[in-house]
Amino acid sequence: MKASNKLFFILLVSQLSILNTVRAQEIIHPVIEITNRSFAIVTDGSTFEKCQKELISYRDRVESEGLPTLILHHDWKNPEQLKKELQKLYKIFKIEGVVFIGEIPIPMVLKAQHLTNVSTAIPSDRFYDDFELTFDFLEQSKTDPQLYFYNLGANSPNRIKSTIYSARIKPIISSEKNGDKYEQIRAYLDKVVKVRQEKNLIDQIMSYVAFESLSSWSSQSLFLEEQFPLVSKTSTQFQNFKDDKHRALQDEVVNQFRREDLDIAIIHQYPLSDVAAIQPNVALTIFADNPTGNFSESAYNAGQFILGTGNALVALAHTVQPSSHQHATYLMGTLGAGLNIGQWLKLNNTLESHLFGDPTFTFSIHTPDTLSKFIHEKDNKKLIDVLSKAKSPEAQSFLLNQLFMNNYGGLAKLITQHYDNSQYATVRYTCIHIADRLEGEVRAALFAKGIKDADESIRLEVINAIARIGDPAFIPALIDAYMENQHAEEVLYAIKMALYAFNKDLIKNIAEHRFMVADNFSDNTKEKERFYENQFTGLYIEIDKNIFDTNVVNQKKGITDLRTIRYHPSVTRYLEFVRNSKINVDLRIAMLESLSCFRDSYRKAEIAAACKELMVDTRHSKRLRDEARRTLNNIN
Amino acid sequence: MQKFLFSILIYLSITVCVHSQVKIEKPTLNTNNKAFVIVVDQETYTHTQDAIKAYQKTVESDGIPTYVIYGLFNRPDDIKKELIKLHKSKQSLEGAVFIGNIPIPMVYDFSGHVTATPSDRFYDDLHLNFEYIKQDANQRNLHYYKLQESSPRDINPSFYSARIYYPTLKYDESYEAINNYLLKVAHTRRDNVLDHVVSSTNRDYYNGCTTAWKDELKVYREYFPFLVKQVNGLQQLAFKTDNSTAILNELQRKEVDLFLIRSDSSSTIQTTAAKKLDTYPLYLILDTQPAGALDSIEYTAGQYLFNSGNTIAVQANTSPAPTDINFSGLLSYGLRWGHVHNLGLTLGRHLFGDPTFHFAVKDTEKLNEKITQQEDHEYWKLLLKKDDPIYQTLALFKLSSGNTSSSEAIMPYFENSPYRTVRLQALHALSIHKDKHFTNAVSTGLGDEYELIAQQATSYARMIGDTVLIPSLTQAWLNDKSRRRVQQHIKSTFEVFDRNLVEKSLTTALHNSNRLHQDTEIESVKSQYSRPATLEGSLKQIKDRTRPKEERIRLVQLMTTYNYHPGIDGILAIINDKQEHIELRIAFVTALGTFSHSWKRETILANLQILLKSKAKKELKIEAERTINRLN
User: Fold this and answer.
1) Nearest Cα residue to B612 out of B601, B603, B620
2) Chain centroid offset of residue A516 CA
3) Percent of the residues in chain B that have a pLDDT greater than 90, as a whole number
4) Distance between start and end Cα atoms, chain A
5) Is residue A173 one of the residues assigned to a domain?
6) Pick from B123, B99, B121, B96: which is nearest to B35 by CA?
């Protein structure tokens, strides 16, 4: 064999081996050349067959905006099979994201109580798009063969950090007149191709919220105005609904969805009903709370929203009720700086957040700061240079976040500078958000400032984080915050919830003094008593009483409550509880599960030490030892 | 017995004789600055002499030469005479404070209303000419006045004024309170930066509109550039039906510099006052109905001054009137509160406490001196060019009140300014010109991102009544549902137009929309507009000669109060009809005076001019002249 032939042979073999692993799957390569990234359309065999023409047009459309796109179709045996292929595509073709069209197996994730709000199985495509997470297969659902149940792996990372972005275009199957499922996909893809030909600046947005305090709403509105500066020109460009208890404005939301010029709708606490009648036209809709995106159901709302009549393109929704502390629009302003929707969401993913529709949809750029080229930038020097010139607040936030993801060493100093000098609430929020993850001195320093920030969202972020940490050193700051936030209902509520995580006597000791010297009450004693009365009552004051009760039902409730209120002072007692072989092993395991949520606790080390000891102590059952290992992993 | 009476008479005549001689103490400070005058009644002077001296010294050390005038004042005119003298002097006057028991002028509202308003505009606006009516039979310190026919109607104060008045029947208590207050002023530093603000409004204040509440936060940032950048820098209390507890607490916060309390009900304020608490905000602005009713012994504004807290002054109304806070930025720059208070002043708005007080001076323009130089238009034009919302707002006010700027010059500030306060002030400034630019601005303003501008625009639209405004109103009505207050105002604004035009505009817009229930909504509009409206009915009824004259007059007043522009032609026809009763024709001419901004103003003026040249009765001509004045 000549050398050149030999090389050709090797190439051929390597190509064949790639194809070989894909085997019965078919791959259609991009038309345009891949330089640094690509995108994958993944579908099942019959969808490919029935929608081939539209899939190709969609591919062409995406490629026309410079993103090489391949199509992969196969009748997927199980989620693992697909995940393996995605990992290969990532390696070979540098895919940055994927859209799942048609019948794609649905991973249902258990044992992820520390990552979410619920303890039931969570439909989650993080199985596919976060390559670091590991999963242990449990079973395929007998009632719905599309569903595959997994435990989050015992050694899996304890945070979400998606490697690629993903979205679903999953047709609705219902008895009603939604039409043939392939027809739905064809119509949707046609719509995408058509709508994406038009230039679209983000200059029309709307938001709706029903139950929220005025000041919280005001702060969130300000965030959106910083993120989307074009909408502040005239009143109608930012229709900002704050409803009241009569829900007087609810009907107007439907008319907003129907607007043909609306770019983004951000929806809180809105019960979607009769979606088919709405015929929405808004390009991107964010359902920030209700689980409208539970795609394990055949007629899930988010799907109806984009697949029905109307030009609605993409919806962001959740498969289960998300945590109320989740900031659904974090870094969203990057959408006006060149990021596509998938790229943005990847920065702010949770286990339950999902995109429905075309994740590569990109709005026109409206700021001098174009950010998409920095999304994979690893050169921190370059990022810092760009940051120093960045004008828009959202560009600054994005770049700080990139530096954080790149583990830049000088970040503590950088975020402190930005926090101290920025007039933008969104930038200060980002600094606090990053400080929370950096821990250590910078966190303490920025939290001390952040809890007094002029912006309410920032104060809330700090207070919620303090509750997770539980260090009694924060008590004085919380008491002061209580006195300073009398005008801010939501902050007072967050303080109350946070203080549940602290020892009552410690709180009293500090409060006695703080209230005595306070100069902002007309009657200090009365106000102090009002504070005690309010703080030392309520649902969560009796957590320990329940846990150490004799009634198993109460005990279970107490242990579950620990996921909401991490009562750090009793960690020693909880660990004794776990060690105590006289106690029902299910309760001890439940306790370990709840302790998984103590990842940010200042007493994490004690829990970790106990878990290490339990893991190897063969006097305990294997189940308990396994759970201890899992807990150790979850908090580390 | 006779002898006894006689000696009393002699005593009285001596007293009168001695006290009617007003005593004037000259300033001890020699500068060319305009002067300030402390006016105090003899008794109070006698009991608080040292404190007054201390106060005078304090004001003078702040750069203002200060007179003290005291004596026995029987009537407001006794004082006004002295004020005019000082104002006319070369040094002139920048302000006055009335301490103690100073006669209270009760002024009949300019629009001819039946109740009189306590108003010190009698003293401080020397352009206005008043006619004395009587002294109150019970409350001897109240004196009733009405405006003379020849008097201007617009308020344009010649200097600022304030009261330090402790109403009580126990005089000793009053002297002690005034003493303590004056010493408090003398001891309070004037370099306190305005960096802590609290604002409270109740739900009704914005018609329950949350957007209005939220938007106000953004203008606070323009008003108050020096706020500490922390949670305690600016506290905007949520609007609730009852904010009493929160208000009481905020009044205790020692760091608060300015506290704005605005609400329709005054219960909280009265509670606060009743509790006789010490209050700490240096300056309080109370936009609550009777807080400044100084004709009442229980007027609440005063309660905030006479306690051991830090409060120096309170702005409040003696009668219901909206409080314009658009000049609040000048407080941040350290302008004297009296100067700021005087901008856009109304009949009922009053300052209680020391009007010379100010926060730390932060401006680079020496506005405390410049602001009284009304004539220097070139200066205000230069100031308008500075990229600073606080300067621009003031410049726009000065240029428009001096009527020295064209609407072309103002328009760019309305259309392009990134500052909400500036756009709002520009809209007000344009309203003076009553021209095409103003109408265009109102049309654009309906969609301004600042809710208050849109709301003001609806009011102006009502005053203008030009049918070119219907499409913009329709657009705002259809596409701006998140602003509750604007929505309510638009609905009532539609009533000043021809209903057929409105109906057509609304149904067409709905038809072209993509609203889910557009058919139902179109039907609802149609049924609503098929019912005859009150004002439309009134127009028919005033033409009906079989109706009693009084009823027709009442109806025309209703039509004009509600700015029913489509009725103008009908009203003019009746005025021009010599068959109609003269009394009716006169009343109709009076009624037309409310159409000062109407798009048919020229028509009205032309008609009245013809009337003046005709052989009409003298009374009718007098009334026509008066209405012409009001329309110009």
Assistant:
1) B620
2) 42
3) 77
4) 55
5) no
6) B96
B418 touches chain A (CB under 8 A): no
Contact between chains at A527 and B249 (C-beta distance less than 8 A):
yes
Q: With respect to residue A175, please indicate whether it lies within any of the assigned structural domains.
A: no
Q: Do residue A339 and residue A454 come from a single domain?
A: no
With an 8 Å Cβ cutoff, are A218 and B250 in contact? no
Locate the chain A residue with the closest alpha carbon to B253: A520
The answer to the question of residue A342 being in a domain is yes
Indicate whether A515 and A555 sit together in one domain: no
What is the rounded average pLDDT of the residues B36-49? 97
Within 8 A of B249 by CB-CB distance, chain A residues are: 486, 520-522, 527
Interval B555-589: pLDDT, tens: 999 999 999 999 999 999 999 999 999 999 999 99
Q: Does A522 touch chain B (CB under 8 A)?
A: yes
A1 vs B602: CA distance, rounded Å: 103
Q: Are residues A333 and A405 in the same domain?
A: no
Q: How far is CA B64 from CA A360, B51, B55, B317, B336, in A?
A: 69, 18, 12, 27, 11
Instruction: Take residue A417 and report the two structure tokens written for it.
Output: 């500078």
Chains A, B: CB pairs < 8 Å: 110
**pLDDT for position A326:** 83
Q: Which of B209, B310, B479 best tests the A interface by mutation, with the highest count of A CBs <10 A?
A: B479
- Judge: B516–A252 Cβ closer than 8 Å, yes or no: no
Q: Compare all CA atoms of chain B with the CA of A448 and give the residue at the minimum distance.
A: B230
Structure confidence at residue B15 (pLDDT): 40
Instruction: Print the domain residue range for A575.
Output: 543-635
CATH number at residue A447: 1.25.10
Per-residue model confidence as pLDDT tens digits over A475-520: 999 999 999 999 999 999 999 999 999 999 999 999 999 999 998 8
Look at residue A3 and tell me whether its pLDDT is greater than 70: no
Indicate whether B604 pLDDT > 80. Answer: yes
Question: Considering its fold, how many domains does chain A have in total?
Answer: 4
The answer, yes or no, to whether residue B241 has pLDDT greater than 80, is: no
Q: pLDDT at residue B612 above 90?
A: yes
Residue B312 clears pLDDT 70, i.e. is over it? yes
Q: Which of A535, A568, A594 is the last residue of a domain?
A: A535
User: What are the chain B neighbours of A453 within 8 Å (beta carbons)?
Assistant: 229-231
Co-location of A252 and A336 in the same domain: yes
What number of other Cβ atoms are within 10 A of residue A319's Cβ?
A: 29
Tell me if B249 and A520 make a contact (CB, 8 A cut-off): yes
Indicate whether A363 belongs to any domain.
no
The number of C-alpha atoms within 13 Å of A293 and in the hemisphere containing its C-beta is 30
A318 and A205: one domain? yes
Whole-complex ipTM = 0.90
Nearest-CA distance A312 → chain B (Å):
14
Q: CB contact, 8 Å: A233 with chain B?
A: yes
Terminal-to-terminal C-alpha distance of chain B: 64
Task: Answer yes or no: do A454 and B251 touch at CB < 8 A.
Answer: no
Q: Which of B199, B197, B198, B230 is CA-nearest to residue B213?
A: B199
Write down the pLDDT at residue B275: 67
- % pLDDT > 90, chain A: 85
The predicted structure's pLDDT at residue A7: 46
CA angle B140/B304/A454 to nearest 5° reads 150
**Rounded distance between C-alpha atoms, residue B97 and residue B51, angstroms:** 14
Specify the 3-state DSSP secondary structure of A168.
Answer: strand
Domain boundary residue, one of A515, A535, A555: A535
User: Model-level pTM?
Assistant: 0.92
Quick check: B244 pLDDT over 90?
no
Average pLDDT, chain B: 91
Say which of B214, B480, B515 has its CB closest to residue A218.
B214
Quick check: A117 pLDDT over 90? no
